[in-house]
Write a structure and sequence with these properties.
450 residues, alpha+beta, eight-stranded mixed beta sheet, globular
Length: 450
């Protein structure tokens, strides 16, 4: 076999691409796998420590999740949780905190009470806290807060803050340790073109190298749609790139504190989180502003953004329809101002005060260089946003576009994609699916330690 020929090529070395590498190398009999990453190491873009909210989402306190969505996300996040408990006993990759979502005022209180009744069977550790119980967990939430408004919280001690870059590195390390797989890590290698051939695909890199693969997985975030369109897939989709920023504050919180999602807004509500490696720092955010780029702080990706979005009438009408909604338009405009010097902090503190009423301007520092881009998928047929991960499956090729909570469900995505890849490869290839699930179950951990 030619040295540049592989059974599977994974394009993208973020936490999702490396999760698939881990799954294929440890639970299939695929012999030759290549992971191609345009950066010098894994997880240097959206999976980088500074580029995301470092949260393992389960759906228990994320009030924009329906019960069905929470069930799906919980399955995926639980796999990551069990991986961390098994592989990261020293908590170098993650830190465990409690977490809660605050309901302030009668309308939000009613919403959380109803949510608790609906969700408590799915999340047995979920509790409903009153004002005094909230104060015992998070004293600064009550300091300076009016006694006149109703206040409750949904609470659980099952909160995980994750350094997704270190998680990606762990996936790679635990892939390379398997002597039965031949894995090539091709860093600083940017794929310029994917061309379908009779036996699979030929990939051409920016430096003119050619790589052949029977099956290709594109796990390159927003760039995945660009590759899909180059092969005639995903033509009815565009991207609305939403960039998130953060503010730092001194240790004001003991755990994660969320606010209730606003109606009609598909973007995450502001929350406060202790840093994954430093609990003395709280990170407030994310903000959400629309930017025409595929990567934050990478202005060369602006041209690529318009290639994915397209300049068709359908795309333009879809963006106008979405952004002309008065609630969304006001929200986007305000969030854009949060990044401005001087006035940004004065505007953002109103959001932070929903969590810490006594917080002062001097407590907040703009987190320069923090934040990434989350590609929100736009369906050009319905002219609406499609929330969550998007997957486009073609002929022996898969394109994963993974906005939040893609990192939280990376192993669930890997499970689903490994199944498809084995089907693509055909006779003689197998995926030990049950072994994968058994190894990432709480029962297997208990048996292993008994």
């Amino acid at each position: 076999m030619n040295s540049n020929t592989y059974e599977v090529v994974i394009i993208g070395g973020g936490v999702c691409g490396t999760a698939l590498l881990y799954t294929l190398s440890n639970y299939t009999n695929i012999g030759r796998i290549a992971l191609i990453e345009k950066e010098a190491d894994v997880a240097l873009v959206n999976s980088f420590t500074n580029s995301n909210s470092q949260t393992l989402h389960f759906g228990d306190i994320e009030t924009n999740y329906t019960l069905a969505k929470a069930e799906k996300v919980n399955r995926g996040a639980s796999l990551v949780k069990q991986y961390l408990l098994a592989k990261d006993e020293q908590q170098e990759i993650h830190t465990k905190y409690h977490k809660m979502v605050l309901g302030v005022g009668q309308e939000q209180v009613d919403k959380l009470q109803a949510r608790y009744e609906e969700f408590k069977q799915l999340f047995p550790s979920l509790q409903l806290l009153d004002r005094s119980q909230i104060g015992s967990k998070e004293p600064k939430i009550l300091a300076g807060r009016s006694q006149d408004r109703e206040l409750i919280a949904l609470y659980t001690d099952e909160g995980y803050t994750v350094d997704f870059r270190l998680l990606a590195q762990s996936f790679v390390a635990n892939s390379l340790s398997n002597p039965n797989s031949k894995i090539d890590l091709l860093f600083e290698t940017k794929v310029k073109q994917i061309k379908q051939q009779e036996a699979g695909y030929q990939l051409t890199t920016r430096d003119g190298q050619t790589i052949n693969a029977k099956v290709v997985m594109v796990a390159a975030g927003a760039h995945s749609l660009l590759f899909a369109k180059s092969l005639g897939y995903g033509l009815d989709y565009a991207l609305l790139s939403v960039a998130g920023s953060f503010y730092f504050a001194p240790q004001l919180l003991n755990g994660k504190v969320y606010t209730v999602q606003r109606q009609k807004l598909p973007f995450a509500a502001i929350h406060g989180d202790p840093e994954v490696h430093d609990r003395t720092i709280a990170r407030f955010g994310p903000t959400a502003k629309v930017l025409p780029m595929l990567e934050r702080h990478h202005y060369g990706s602006i041209i690529e953004y318009f290639q994915t979005a397209g300049l068709s009438i359908k795309a333009i009408l879809s963006f106008i329809k979405i952004l002309s909604d008065p609630v969304i338009l006001k929200y986007i405009a305000l969030n854009f101002c949060y990044d401005f010097p001087i006035i940004g902090k004065r505007l953002f503190i109103k959001e932070a005060k929903k969590i810490i009423p006594a917080i002062e301007l001097k407590d907040l520092t703009y987190a320069k260089g923090y934040g990434g881009v989350r590609p929100q998928v736009v369906n050009l047929k319905t002219q609406a946003l499609e929330m969550g991960e998007a997957k486009i499956t073609g002929d022996r090729i898969i394109f994963n576009i993974t906005p939040s909570p893609g990192a939280s469900t990376c192993l669930q995505n890997a499970l689903e994609d490994a199944t498809r890849i084995i089907d693509f490869l055909g006779d003689g290839y197998r995926f030990e699916r049950q072994q994968f699930l058994d190894d990432l179950s709480a029962n297997s951990r208990r048996v292993g330690k008994s």
